[in-house]
Amino acid sequence: MPPILVPNEEQSTVALADARRRVRRLSRLHTPVCDLLGIELPILQAGMSSYTTPELVAAVSNAGGLGIIGGLGRSADELREEIQKVRALTARPFGVNHVVSQVAPEEIDVTLELKVPVLSLSWGRSREYVRRARETGIKVVHQVNTPEEAGQVASDGADVIVAQGNEGGGHVGGMSTLPLVPQVVDVVNAVPVLAAGGIADGRGLAAAMMLGAQGALFGTRFLATPEARGRGHSKDVILNALGSQTVASKFFDDVLGLRWPGALVRSIRNPLLDRWAQRQQDWALAADQIRPSLEAAMEAGDFVLAGESAGLIHDIVPAGELVMRIAREAEALLA
Ligand SMILES: Cc1cc2nc3c(=O)[nH]c(=O)nc-3n(C[C@H](O)[C@H](O)[C@H](O)COP(=O)(O)O)c2cc1C
User: Does 280 fall in a domain?
Assistant: First the structure.
């Protein structure tokens, strides 16, 4: 009788991961964009500036989604280090996000030089970055806020387009996710589209797919994970907020002196924002006086950038588990 082969722990982990991958490939969620990006599930974690950590990015990618490093606010050297840390934690594809209107050329150079599998771009347009990335074999996932921009970045050669609605957290445009996604799908022809803004669970992912998206990108939901970098009690503020308690305005950019054309910033309402809410002219004039209070409120976690989907978030879940939970919910609904 042949001996029974008992796999060691490492072998069985690999076998289990392979089996999981095979099962996911059969799933309704395994849309063409998954093969394009080399992932199993069309669940992307937004590159949210300093809120992402290597642990967050790697956990999402290891679970079969795509984790994205936030590039905004990191120097080229910091970015290099961050990319190396992610590589030490996962062999799966991951991305780096750059905000086109804010990025320094050397930050793009590092991303391309280190051949990060996915370059995520938003807020602005650069045909050159897209061309250079694609020449290096890097896939470009471009976030847009209008159908017009979607048409432009599609003609620039973006591989995937993320249609981000105004419900989302952080910098957002004017259109809502529900009408934006199908309009983008109609404009960009065969380029795969992902939905973002207001999506935090399997219901949102399934709904996005009904609109013609091949998956979704999640920001706010991933802030409520142990791996995301919180500030003060910011994660508790997200857990306790309703969607009706967020507001999008120019307050954040005006006070911090950021030039971010076409964008509002969505955050959870707080006393500082309420005090200034109806007085845009005043806050622009008094920016220097308000800035220290805003910075202190952010550090304490009292001023929190988050989207309307905060009202759907009731627990802090490890990022890998979250990916699987969203996938299970969406799969059940699509069935
Ligand atoms: C705290 C925070 C920071 C963000 N930072 C960035 C960023 O640096 N670059 C970017 O392209 N998008 C950024 N976003 C927007 C996300 O890419 C994404 O479009 C958005 O979070 C989707 O909406 P949701 O929050 O409802 O999931 C940020 C969002 C949040 C909540």
Answer: yes
Question: Which residues form the domain of 16?
Answer: 9-229+315-334
Is the per-residue pLDDT at 6 higher than 60?
no
Task: Point out the ligand 1 atom lying closest to the alpha carbon of residue 196.
Answer: 22
pTM across the whole model: 0.93
Considering only CA atoms, which of 191, 185, 145 is closest in space to residue 165?
Answer: 145
The pLDDT of residue 167 is 98
- The answer, yes or no, to whether residue 19 has pLDDT greater than 90, is no
- In ligand 1, the atom with minimum distance to the C-alpha of 162 is 19
Atom of ligand 1 nearest to the CA of 71: 8
Radius of gyration of the chain (CA): 20
Q: Residues enclosing ligand 1, CB less than 6 A? A: 46-49, 51, 70, 72, 97, 99, 122, 143, 164, 167-170, 196-199, 217-221, 305-307, 309
Q: Do residue 37 and residue 178 come from a single domain?
A: yes
Q: How far is CA 46 from CA 43, 203, 218, 242, in A?
A: 10, 18, 6, 21
Looking up residue 69, the CATH number of its domain turns out to be 3.20.20.70
